[in-house]
Amino acid sequence: MTSRLAATIGVLASLGTGLSTATNAGAADIVDTASATSTFKTFLAAAKTAGLTDTLKSGGPYTVFVPANSAFDKLPVDTREALMHDKAKLAQIIAYHVIPGKVLVSDVKPGKVKTMEGDPVVLKSDNGKITLNDEANITQSDIQADNGVIHEIDTVIMPK
């Protein structure tokens, strides 16, 4: 690659176009990005059990509201155990945490947004604090992946 082309790609990448000087080798999709921290182990195990890992690795772009391990710990133990053995229900819950498109926190517009599961999630913004369904808070935002963005949340949200 010529140095001029490399410089142009570098400038475009810094502007957020999604281009980078890296090849696809080593690309970090939603699953790989989430796997880089131990904070999302329970979500990743749930996505694997639900059969959604391949979707989160290859599709997109997605905005994924990933409950931290501590969010799953808030669920009663019997509920959490039952979910981890109910592939259909688990798939429904995981899909409820995913919306199509890449939405950064600065782009959040209050209101209902349709999830991959089909039911909407209600987003609210109050002085920079983003909540989902009046129950989950975004605690870490804009974790970039090649096929979307992850926002860490503090509560597992359930579809109606």
UniProtKB/TrEMBL annotation:
N-terminal signal peptide: 1-27
InterPro entries for this protein: Adhesion/Biosynth-related (IPR050904), FAS1_dom_sf (IPR036378), FAS1_domain (IPR000782)
Any single Pfam family the record assigns to this protein: Fasciclin
GO cellular component: extracellular space
Stored PROSITE patterns: FAS1
Domain FAS1 span(s) in chain numbering: 27-157
Gene3D superfamilies: FAS1 domain (2.30.180.10)
Record PANTHER family: FI19380P1, PERIOSTIN-RELATED
Record protein name field: Fasciclin domain-containing protein
Annotated source species: Noviherbaspirillum galbum
Organism ancestry: Bacteria, Pseudomonadati, Pseudomonadota, Betaproteobacteria, Burkholderiales
